[in-house]
Structure formats: structure tokens, C-alpha cells
Amino acid sequence: MVPVRAVLDILALTTGLLGTAPLFFHLDRVPRFAFLAALVFVIFSVWRGTPPLRGWRATVGTAVFFLYYAFQFSRDNLVGPAANLLVVLLSLRLAGEKIPRNYLQIYALSLFALAASSAFSLSGAFLGYLFLLLLSIAVSLVLLTFFSVDSRLTLTRRGLRRVVSVAAAIPAASAPLILLFFLILPRPQFPLWDFLSPAGERVAGLGDRVEPGSAASVGEVASPVLRARSEELPRKDLYWRGVVFNTLQGNAWVRTEVPEREAPPPGGSVVVRQTVFPETTAGPWLIALDAPLSVSGVRSGRSVDLVFRKRRSSGDRLKYDTVSSLNGVIETKEGVDRDFYLKLPETVSPRVLSLGRSIARGGTSDSERLSLLENYFQSAGFRYATRDLPRSAAPLDEFLFEKKAGHCEFFASSFAVLLRAAGVPSRLVGGYYGGEYNELGGYYLVTESMAHAWVEVFLEGTGWVRRDPSTFAVNFTRERDGKRRGFVATVRLIADSMSYYWNQAVITYDLDKQVRIARATGSVLRSLTVPSGLLRAVVPFLVAGAFLAVCFAGARRFRGSREQRIVRRFLRKLGKRYPHIPMTPSTGLLELAERTGDPRVRRFADIRYGALYRDRKLSEDELSLLEDITRALEASPETFRGRDPSGTSH
């Protein structure tokens, strides 16, 4: 026997875990610790019989945490305090006394916690958590009806399985209705929780400036930036262009108005097409393989340096198509404004300027000076690093001549500054390098950890040429290019493909798609024609098949199960043997046994009701015994009194 209370406690713990799991890593330390402590407390209370948290302790804890997080609420910070408070309240309720009202509170808080997680991230995993949570709550509510009547109630394992299976069928039966509502109901053209997000939120990997020396270390964030459906390409071509920084202000590269003299041509030698699905937090730039020639499918503006920007900022899921040239060169029709791309601030250190001028004296053309600078970077022993970075007032000076270690911003910024000091026009490009190709979905996954900066150098007669000085680091291949895919990464890509298809099927499914699908379906139906000869040949078979199906279903419904057929045959024979005894559909077997005084009827009733009252099916032996009793009705009652149809004497 299984106590209903124990099952309810397990389901309450499961419900709390399902509601909190997708939210856990977005919580503060205190709610995390409170939830983990509540789990440990519940497990020990069940194992060791520890009394639950009750009385004034639970009330005081609730009040303290409510006031603490209430003071953190603000217009720009609603989701964080609310999510933390929900998990703390859920933790206190899990550790508290379990009465029907408290169980219901656990279910409600778990649902609210899961809903709060969608304000931070909404992926395909949310649907899985939601389904399991609804399944757990459905089973819990059915058991709670038994518990509210008798808190000490126990069920057999068979009975518990039947209750669980019936309760689990409730959310499963609602799935077709959910699918129908998903297809036909209109949906807003903006994210449901957008009004709760803090204003001015930007992606950490690609900002509006590049400032080496602003941080002592750079952490890698594996959150997705975009997914791009395209053919698989060599890794050397996986430069994703975002924004161009053309002006150096102090130590920071920023973007200013581009001289309109530049006008890149609309073609390229190696053209690749992609369909890009950016995350909603991907910022104002429309990112594409370098160098993008055109962007379609979304309203955007293009500058002459091939930077595409969204016309309006929104939280909608976007999809746009791009055409890119992968030859690493952007041609220009009329040259560039050299003075604009040679400007340097007064803050550049004398050692950096001296090195740039020595390179200028060593070459007679821009191409030669570029080659001299590349040779310098290759032979200087620079290392790629994300920790212990230069932080002095002259970070480029410290990088070039002292530490000789830094990340892509140090390499690209110092390379561009030295080019300008040598009289060669240059600019920085911010974007992403690399990408994991997902063979299941046929797309590239680009994450924040792939954020990168490189340099474009202008050479007369050629145009803007891409150079990535980070590749000159002695450890660049190992740090940025040599990571092999292991088992965990493979599993993560499989999970990401599910998220990708979730975005395509659910997140981006909006009213426009509904209308297009409805119109396309109508067009197909209107254009559908069937040859008259084929129709005349098929219709008789369809009618005959439908008739046979109806007859078969009716026959099965009329005949019923084996048990029902045995009972009907028994009652018919009983009516023939005792025609003077009135029998109606409401007359029970026990009542017939009393009226007839026939032990065979009593035996038949005991066997059938013995299974029926125990909520189980009759076994094969019991069904055979009922058939023997039915056949024995043709014999005299005395014969049956002396011997059981199964062969057992009385």
C-alpha cells in the first residue's frame, strides 16, 4: 500500500523543480541557496521524519523576503525581483506544512516561476518544462481530492497506477485543442514580456565602441547571437560583419559619419547566400558574412562601408536574406578620403608613433608598408589572451612593447593605429569570427563568445582589404581556431537544432504566416481536380469500405467484451430457467441469487463482483469459470450443489 501523502510530497517536489529549473541560473545567490536548502530539508524530513517548517517561522521568513525584494522593484527592474521573490516563497512553502491549501500554493508558485523564466529566455525547452509541469499538477490535483477526504488514505500500487494514468490523460487529451488554438488564434507582433525588460539593453559581444584597456579580463558568454542557414564553408570565410569603427577617440574606436565619396560596387567574385535568424537581443546591426552586398526581408539602411542597420528597433524575431562576397576585398569606384582614415588622436604614445613612422620609411607603397607591419606582428611573439590584460593609460603601448598579450581588440586596434601612423588608411570592423555548423539543421550557430574585431586596409587599385592581426598570435590557432567538438558539444548542437526548429515553428509563427497558410490552402483546394473516370472507379470502394467499417464498429459495440457477452448469455439462460421471476435491466445478480435461491447464481455473482469491487479485470480462469457456470444452468441445481463447475467439491 502507498500513502497518498507521500505521493503528493514527491509530486510537489517535482513540480517545484520543474518550475524553478529554467529560472535557476537567472536568480540571485540568496534564492538559489534557499531553494537548494528547501530541497535538502524536504528530503531529510521524509527520510528522518523531521517536522516541517510551520508557525511563526514561515510567516516571518515570508514577510522578510517580501519586504527585501519589494524595495528592489523599479520601472527598469521588474522581472529580477519578482522572479527571486517567487522562488523564495516556493522554497518556504516546500519546506512548510503540507495541507491541501499549501499544495495548491506550490502548484501556483511553480507555474508563476516557469512563466517568469520566459522573460529571460524562451526556447524549445520551455515547452517541455510546461508539459511536464502540467502533467505533474494534473496528477497531483486528482490525488489531492482523495487526500482532502482522508489524509491517511493509502492506495494499492495497481490503484495508484490507474489514478495516475487517468490523471495523465487529461493534459494529453487537451493537446489537439492546444494545436488548434495555436493555428487559428491571432498573436501580437511584439514579445509578451517586452515591457518588463530593462531599457537600453545591449549584447555584450558587439557594442557601439571598441576600447582596449577598459577591462582586466574578458569572459566568454555562450549565448546565441544568430543562426544562419547556408552551405558549409571553410572556416577562413566565417567573418560575420556587424559594424565599422572609423574614428579613434582617445583609446576607443567609435563610428562617425562616413564620407559619401565611397561607393562599393554591387558585385563580388565569390557570392554566398544566407538566411539569417538573429536573436532578439542582437542589437541594431544586421549581421552577415563579410562582405554583405545586399540584405532583404527586413527594412534596413545600408551605409557605403557595407554596414546594415535596422530601420526600427523592436523585439520581434527577424529573418532576413543576405548575399555576400567572400573574396575579402571591397572595391571602391572613386577611392576614399585618405585624411579621414589617417586621423590619430594626440593620446597616441610616442613609441607607437615612432614604430609607425619607421614602417612608413621602410616601404615605398601602401602594400609594402602593410607587408612590413605583418612581418613585425609575426615575429614579435604576441600571444592571444583574455586575462591579465593591459590597463594603463596607454594600453596599446603596454600591449606592443611590454605584455605582448591581449585579445582581438588589442591586436586590431594597435594594427590599425600603426597603419595610420605609417600613412596607410585603415579602419576597424566589429563582428564575429567562426561558427559551429549544425548538420541536422543545415545552419551556422554564432555565439557571443565568437565576438571579434579585425582591420580593413585601403590599397589603391584594390580597395578595402581584410586583415586579421589576431591570426599573427603564436597561440591563435589553439585559442580561437583549434577547439574540437566533443560529446558535450555534439549534444549541445542537437539541443540547439531543437531550439532552431522551435523558433521557426513557434516563435516566428505569427498572423502573417496564418494568413499565408490559409490563402495557400485555399488556392490548392480550388485548383485540385480529380479525373472523372478515377472518381467513378474509386467512389464505390470508398462507400463499401465506409459501410463495412460502420458495420464492424457496430458489431463490436453490440457484442461488447468477453465478460459482457458471458453476462448477457447467463441472464438469457437464467430467464429461460426461471421465467416466473421478473428480471429488469436494473436487477442485480445478488438480487437474482436471493430470488432464485440457486447457488450457481450466487457463485456467478461472487466471482464477478469480487473483481468489480476491487477495480480489476477478471482473469482468464475466472472468465472460464463463469462460462462453466452458465453452461451448468442447463443441469439441475442439485448437481451443482454437489460439485463446483471447476471440479471442486463443496
Q: What is this structure, in a nutshell?
A:
By secondary structure, the chain is an alpha+beta fold. The chain has 21 helices and 21 strands.
Protein architecture, described:
The chain is of the alpha+beta class and 650 residues long. The chain folds into 3 domains: 2-184; 209-483, no CATH class; 562-642, no CATH class. The chain has 21 helices and 21 strands. Strands 10-13-8-4-19-18 form a 6-stranded antiparallel sheet, with helices on one face. Strands 9-5-17-20-21-14 form a 6-stranded antiparallel sheet, with helices on one face. A 3-stranded antiparallel sheet has the order 3-7-6, with no helix packed on it. Strand 15 (383-384), helix 11 and strand 16 form a beta-alpha-beta unit. The radius of gyration is 38 Å and the shape is elongated.
Secondary-structure blueprint:
Elements: E1 2-3, H1 4-20, H2 29-48, H3 56-70, H4 79-95, H5 100-117, H6 124-149, E2 154-155, H7 157-173, H8 175-184, E3 209-210, E4 224-229, E5 239-245, E6 247-249, E7 252-254, E8 271-278, E9 288-289, E10 292-296, E11 300-302, E12 308-310, E13 320-325, E14 329-330, H9 350-362, H10 366-379, E15 383-384, H11 395-403, E16 405-406, H12 408-421, E17 426-433, E18 436-438, E19 443-447, E20 451-459, E21 463-467, H13 476-481, H14 487-507, H15 511-527, H16 532-559, H17 562-577, H18 589-596, H19 599-612, H20 620-632, H21 637-642
Parallel strand pairs: 15-16
Antiparallel strand pairs: 1-2, 3-7, 4-8, 4-19, 5-9, 5-17, 6-7, 8-13, 10-13, 11-12, 14-21, 17-20, 18-19, 20-21
